[in-house]
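Notes continue from the previous slide.

Worked example: a multi-chain complex. Inputs as given:
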Amino acid sequence: MFIGAQVSLYPMTSDFVQVIMSGLKALDPYRDDLRIETDDMSTLMVGAPGPLIDAIRDLFATTARNPAHSTMHVTLSRGCPGEPDDPSCRCDILAIAQNTPLAQRQLQAQEAVAEAPDMGVQIDVQFSLYVLGQDRHMDEIYGCIEFLKSSGTFLRSKNFCTRLRGDAGAVFETLRQAFLRFGPAEGHVTIDLTASANSPSKD
Amino acid sequence: MFIGAQVSLYPMTSDFVQVIMSGLKALDPYRDDLRIETDDMSTLMVGAPGPLIDAIRDLFATTARNPAHSTMHVTLSRGCPGEPDDPSCRCDILAIAQNTPLAQRQLQAQEAVAEAPDMGVQIDVQFSLYVLGQDRHMDEIYGCIEFLKSSGTFLRSKNFCTRLRGDAGAVFETLRQAFLRFGPAEGHVTIDLTASANSPSKD
């Protein structure tokens, strides 16, 4: 199993380099657990979903505490057949999810969101979950959407994606649960995610 | 068939509202052909891939001519089983692609990129193509990657995505061909795309 993300941070301020640099310090506690490589377009993070999603959450929560309008784009992937197996990506939730009925996975996901830490910063997210290499991919998608509607972070459905809103702790736990508990445990699942904070245009 | 995109523009300047507003004027010639709806996180565009990808290209090319570092995120989708059929999304390339062997589709895609207009602005892109609801999804992905390597806009492969670089005309034609000529004609195919211009960190 290979699990990771390409992450890009976009502060809408002329001072964007400084905001990105101070946001990146939030990754320091995770550098032992994750492989982190930055190029001119994104930062690759590879590792288990515990530290991986925590690191992405802390990166954006830290950035969102800056008053500037900032957004972040993340391409999350697990189980891509084109990537090598990596022992550092081992994930117990995936092993448990295998053979667990959909209704029970939905409950486990709800419980995990209820226990998420309060990060003290409100964020908006929209994302798409893709379950690949499976004939009946929409069953798992619809099951995931049912969980999202009960998660406490659901804002509304949009064409091609779902909007979440709430504290960064609950929102990123919702994303981690969607990523891990839906779609086959050994399958290829991806998320296309955009986060936003301090937007001048609220709805 | 339902075809469309969620598009977000991110200028890294304190003057971002003005840059976004002037970029959006590039969409005016396409408003008769596309359904365009903007909320606080993204702009939905629905319609046939001809005007759809041209509109997204012109939006980003116009923005990239501004000296500010700007990025754009696009979630492209065709054939999502959860969306209604929309006659405005009718696409002849998809009908032709049906029953055409992979090698021939690769050649047709190369020819289309060679004929792309020169927009006079260099951009960087990274993107992931997802073919959903099919057991053998990686065959079409690998076929598409072969085309990308011969497109003239290929920069390099990255984990989870592919980097393109070149004139906005050739780059967005490469993306349109990847979106339309690979994966089943009636299937569910999506692209997770990030574009970047005027970055201070070049590689």
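Summary box: The mean pLDDT of chain A is 94. Chain A touches chain B through 55 residues (CB under 8 Å).
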